[in-house]
């Protein structure tokens, strides 16, 4: 099991399930926030930061020549007869992000430590699956949807609180004619894959631990799960096949759990000596189709993380680069082409530690709260943040935390004064917002 965070197969596979505690600090929010030209009220759970809000209008997945845009169009061209969407609003209700997809009421993804809220009834989508019901309700049977998604997370070279996912789905009629179509598709895809340089480690399409849904005919479910696997194996071959040169591409399927699919799977690809988690998928749960007023159909859906794949294909070493406006980055890429990124320079790191006593009687500051604070002060000048120590004082029972911040720009050398100023602001905000005592 690579991760515990059930709905995060796709980017950030580090588990971030911890105790819940509210991180929001109401005093730092104005009564209203303006997002994409509209005004929204805030409340006691508002936790979206200015640095996150500033990313919303950027839409890098639609910028000509940007690696994420090229990757999106390559995947879209692999599914030419699907509808392609890429302009859905990132603000959704928690109902849409979670309930429509059968997430349990106590799912940790709902907590303010894991997700960004504008207010109680409005949040930044945490995954593209949030739009499944909306798209199925339009009567769409085969579609792809690309979007920016938002999750509170720690800071390092492969994690960023804003990233991009692509959701794909395919529905068939749950009757003899629909199943005949699935079988024909399966045969066609199998033939294509047999001729290719790919080694697939598979698992049963259904099993007792990865069950068929009660309302599904097991034969239909099996055919659809097989179709899902064949379709995605063929996509992975398109994406990674050529990079692997003479070496066959190795793909492995793993049983998974998602609230909104059953059976469910994750897919990993072997790349440069490591298994990398690429996507989550499964047979769409019946209740999602019911809410969408779709009758008599069965089908699959998948969600993949674009940054993860683009970092591999383009050899992009740091996830912050996807947000770079530096010409030395952007000018390297041509629309529609995958080329190897040439790092222009690696500038020096500057490490700064901060240790503090947490407020008397309160739980230790959540890592994600610390990281959002640092991100808000230093933006993309922070490369990673590590907790290096934590303990509870045996007599006073007060907890202490120590973090190490690595400041490094991707574009230039930072001066000592500049870093000291940033660190000073981090410390001031820490004491102002979280009432910690610096040690
Ligand atoms: N939304 C999931 C995530 O962000 C990924 C996913 C899993 C999407 C299964 C799907 C699916 O469509 O069927 O981790």
From TrEMBL:
<dbReference type="InterPro" id="IPR006195">
    <property type="entry name" value="aa-tRNA-synth_II"/>
</dbReference>
<keyword id="KW-0067">ATP-binding</keyword>
<keyword id="KW-0030">Aminoacyl-tRNA synthetase</keyword>
<feature type="domain" description="Aminoacyl-transfer RNA synthetases class-II family profile">
    <location>
        <begin position="90"/>
        <end position="343"/>
    </location>
</feature>
<keyword id="KW-0648">Protein biosynthesis</keyword>
<dbReference type="Pfam" id="PF01409">
    <property type="entry name" value="tRNA-synt_2d"/>
</dbReference>
<dbReference type="InterPro" id="IPR036690">
    <property type="entry name" value="Fdx_antiC-bd_sf"/>
</dbReference>
<comment type="similarity">
    <text>Belongs to the class-II aminoacyl-tRNA synthetase family.</text>
</comment>
<dbReference type="InterPro" id="IPR045864">
    <property type="entry name" value="aa-tRNA-synth_II/BPL/LPL"/>
</dbReference>
<dbReference type="Pfam" id="PF03147">
    <property type="entry name" value="FDX-ACB"/>
</dbReference>
<keyword id="KW-0496">Mitochondrion</keyword>
<dbReference type="InterPro" id="IPR002319">
    <property type="entry name" value="Phenylalanyl-tRNA_Synthase"/>
</dbReference>
<protein>
    <recommendedName>
        <fullName>phenylalanine--tRNA ligase</fullName>
        <ecNumber>6.1.1.20</ecNumber>
    </recommendedName>
</protein>
<feature type="domain" description="FDX-ACB">
    <location>
        <begin position="345"/>
        <end position="439"/>
    </location>
</feature>
<keyword id="KW-0547">Nucleotide-binding</keyword>
<dbReference type="InterPro" id="IPR004530">
    <property type="entry name" value="Phe-tRNA-synth_IIc_mito"/>
</dbReference>
<keyword id="KW-0809">Transit peptide</keyword>
<dbReference type="InterPro" id="IPR005121">
    <property type="entry name" value="Fdx_antiC-bd"/>
</dbReference>
<keyword id="KW-0436">Ligase</keyword>
């Amino acid at each position: 099991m690579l991760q515990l965070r059930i709905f995060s197969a796709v980017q950030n596979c580090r588990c971030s399930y911890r105790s819940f505690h509210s991180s929001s600090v109401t005093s730092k929010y104005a009564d209203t926030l303006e997002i994409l030209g509209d005004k929204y009220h805030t409340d006691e759970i508002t936790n979206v930061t200015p640095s996150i809000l500033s990313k919303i209008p950027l839409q890098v997945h639609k910028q000509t020549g940007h690696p994420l845009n090229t990757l999106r169009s390559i995947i879209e061209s692999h599914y030419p007869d699907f509808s392609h969407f890429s302009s859905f609003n990132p603000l959704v209700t928690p109902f849409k992000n979670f309930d429509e997809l059968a997430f349990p009421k106590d799912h940790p993804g709902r907590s303010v430590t894991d997700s960004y809220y504008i207010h109680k009834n409005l949040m930044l989508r945490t995954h593209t699956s949030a739009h499944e019901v909306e798209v199925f309700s339009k009567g769409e049977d085969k579609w792809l949807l690309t979007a920016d998604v938002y999750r509170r997370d720690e800071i390092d070279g492969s994690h960023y609180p804003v990233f991009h996912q692509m959701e794909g789905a395919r529905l068939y009629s749950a009757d003899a004619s629909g199943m005949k179509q699935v079988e024909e598709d399966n045969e066609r895809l199998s033939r294509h894959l047999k001729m290719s340089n790919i080694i697939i480690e598979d698992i049963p399409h259904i099993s007792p631990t990865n069950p068929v849904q009660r309302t599904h005919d097991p034969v239909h479910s099996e055919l659809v799960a097989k179709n899902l696997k064949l379709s995605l194996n063929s996509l992975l071959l398109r994406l990674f096949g050529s990079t692997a040169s003479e070496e066959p591409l190795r793909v492995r399927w793993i049983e998974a759990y998602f609230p909104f699919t059953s059976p469910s799977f994750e897919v990993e690809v072997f790349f440069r000596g490591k298994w990398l988690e690429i996507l989550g998928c499964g047979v769409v749960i019946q209740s999602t189709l019911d809410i969408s007023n779709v009758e008599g159909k069965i089908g699959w859906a998948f969600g993949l993380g674009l940054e993860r794949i683009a970092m591999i294909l383009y050899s992009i070493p740091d996830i912050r680069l996807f947000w770079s406006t530096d010409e030395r980055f952007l000018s390297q890429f041509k629309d529609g082409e995958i080329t190897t990124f040439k790092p222009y320079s690696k500038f020096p790191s500057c490490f700064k530690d901060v240790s503090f006593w947490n407020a008397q009687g309160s739980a230790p500051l959540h890592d994600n709260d610390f990281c959002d604070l640092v991100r808000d002060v230093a933006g993309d000048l922070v490369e990673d943040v590590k907790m290096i120590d934590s303990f509870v004082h045996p007599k006073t029972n007060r907890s202490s935390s120590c973090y190490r911040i690595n400041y490094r720009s991707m574009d230039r050398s930072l001066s000592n004064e500049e870093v000291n100023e940033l660190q000073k602001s981090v410390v001031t905000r820490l004491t102002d917002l979280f009432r910690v005592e610096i040690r």
